[in-house]
Design goal:
Elements lengths: L14 H17 L9 H15 L11 H7 L1 H19 L2 H22 L9 E7 L7 H9 L5 E5 L6 H8 L5 E5 L2 E5 L3 E6 L9 E8 L2 E9 L4 E3 L3 E3 L1 H15 L6 E6 L10 H4 L3 E2 H5 L17 E6 L2 E7 L10 E6 L6
Parallel strand pairs: 1-2, 7-10
Antiparallel strand pairs: 1-14, 2-4, 3-4, 5-6, 6-7, 8-9, 10-12, 11-12, 13-14
Helix pairs in contact: 2-4, 2-5, 4-5, 6-7
């Protein structure tokens, strides 16, 4: 007599069936877990605090260690770092309360920085500008000069120029840029004629800022080059930035007094667009990265960029695109932008 045998595979069902069964068991287990709402209260509270810090960052006082400026410098990272950590805690604790609370900082972060996640890069433009803090201790100034010249910039600003290295940069850039001027530790190289070159006093006692008129085929542009004083994070003093803030105010006054309608600021401001201490500058100019870039455009440190402290800002010209350039021998990344000088309002 013939007998038929049936062989069971896997543990009672096909792959998708098993996965569905597991999900159902997990759902049923969580639904029956009355502690799912009571657990994770601390994680939920931390999520709300994180959201409030990001939302109310402008109200964090600078009176103690410049904590306000410090938080604003690294503001995007508050969400990038702490939201995943809180998510892990919520999952480990199996807390619905913590998971729902986590939506608050996510919403705040997206409101603040979601616009930077898309690609706003356009096409066209008639002037390419670039800026680079070359680092006074750069081991290869000649190579750095060639790298930034290869970006195709029509106007190039360099900061932190050591006196002994200036001739090296001048020789390396001579074939690309017919016009240039070095004032103190900053310099400007241009394919187009320079005039009205002068030092800009940013209340330091030595020269780290300059201004020049660049006569482009589409009109004159006032170009400022600036290197704000460095800031430090010290255990005893916090975020020390008083001299930087004073210099930013002085630079803002100089730009506000500029007679030309078209203005471009290139330089290392040692601060981000979020930093309230740079309001004297940022309130009257647009960031090319924010207006026409892709992503955050972090420029420092070059080994693992965490903040955009190297800035290209404009007034009276239209940003078309903005980007960071490949790493050189400096601890900063070069940044570049394409702008349209010949605007309808010109």
């Amino acid at each position: 007599m013939a007998q038929a045998y049936m062989t069971e595979t896997g543990g009672g069902g096909t792959g998708p069936d098993r996965r569905g069964s597991r999900l159902r068991r997990l759902y049923d287990g969580l639904r029956g877990d009355r502690g799912i709402w009571r657990r994770g209260i601390v994680s939920a509270a931390l999520a709300v605090v994180l959201a409030l810090v990001m939302l109310l960052h402008a109200r964090i006082p600078n009176t103690v260690g410049n904590l306000g400026s410090l938080s604003e410098t690294f503001l995007p990272w508050l969400g990038v770092v702490f939201v995943p950590l809180l998510l892990i805690l919520a999952v480990v604790r199996k807390s619905a309360t913590a998971l729902i609370a986590l939506l608050v900082p996510v919403a705040v972060w997206l409101n603040l920085f979601g616009g930077l996640l898309g690609d706003k890069t356009g096409s066209g433009g008639d002037l390419t500008v670039a800026t680079h803090n070359v680092n006074a201790e750069n081991p290869d100034p000649s190579g750095t000069a060639r790298d930034v010249a290869a970006s195709g910039a029509d106007v190039l600003a360099l900061e932190e120029l050591k006196a002994s290295a200036v001739p090296v940069y001048e020789r390396a850039l001579a074939s690309t840029y017919r016009y240039h001027s070095v004032q103190g530790t900053v310099g400007l190289w241009s394919r187009y004629p320079l005039s009205g070159v002068r030092v800009v006093d940013i209340k330091l006692g030595w020269t780290r800022a300059m201004r020049a008129t660049v006569t482009t085929p589409d009109g004159q542009v006032a170009v400022y080059v600036a290197h704000m004083p460095s800031v430090r994070v010290k255990l005893a003093a916090g975020f020390t930035a008083r001299q930087r803030d004073t210099s930013a105010d002085a630079l803002g006054e100089a730009i506000a007094d500029e007679k030309l309608g078209r203005v471009v600021l290139l330089g290392d401001l040692n601060g981000t667009m979020n930093d309230r201490s740079l309001n004297a500058v940022t309130s009257q100019m647009r960031s090319t990265q924010g207006a026409a870039g892709s992503g955050f455009g972090f420029s420092w440190p070059a080994s693992f960029p965490m903040a955009r402290i190297d800035q290209i800002m404009v007034r009276g010209v239209e940003p078309v695109s903005s980007w960071t350039l490949p790493r050189t021998g400096s601890d900063h990344l070069p940044v570049a932008a394409r702008v349209k000088v010949a605007t309808p309002a010109s």
